[in-house]
């Protein structure tokens, strides 16, 4: 498994639309890239955002990062982003989940 970390800020007044459009964007992302296992949109204390996506593999995460702009719902959602702080991928070395499944 791999985790994608995408930090960004949004345009003033865009928060409501960013959150409201999120389900359709994630649904389209998962249809195009089925290796996406989970997605968490978080807001940091400084007001910036961190999108955390869990992927079946790093290769799938990196492919999606290269091609995500070709998914119309994703491209439309990105219009809310004022500034990107970059995207990083990290490999999951060990994991624990509440349902008891270890990675």
Provide a descriptive summary of the structure in words.
By secondary structure, the protein is α+β, with helices and mostly antiparallel strands. It has one domain (2-91): Alpha-Beta Plaits. 33% of the residues lie in helices and 34% in strands. It has helices at 15-20, 22-32, 58-67, 72-78; strands spanning 2-10, 36-43, 49-55, 81-91. Strands 2-3-1-4 form a four-stranded antiparallel β-sheet. Helix 2 crosses helix 4 (72-78). The longest helix has 11 residues, at 22-32. It is globular, with a radius of gyration of 14 Å. Pfam families: ABM (PF03992).
What features would you highlight for this structure?
alpha+beta; Alpha-Beta Plaits; 103 residues; single chain; ABM_dom; 4-stranded antiparallel sheet
């Amino acid at each position: 498994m791999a985790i994608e970390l995408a930090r960004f800020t949004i345009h003033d007044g865009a928060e409501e639309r960013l959150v409201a459009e999120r389900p359709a964007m994630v649904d389209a992302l998962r249809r195009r890239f089925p290796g996406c296992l989970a997605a968490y949109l978080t807001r940091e204390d400084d007001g910036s955002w961190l999108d955390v996506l869990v992927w079946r593999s790093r290769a799938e995460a990196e492919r999606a990062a290269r091609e995500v702009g070709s998914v119309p719902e994703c491209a439309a959602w990105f219009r809310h982003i004022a500034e990107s702080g970059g995207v990083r991928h990290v490999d999951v070395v060990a994991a624990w989940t509440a349902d008891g499944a270890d990675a």
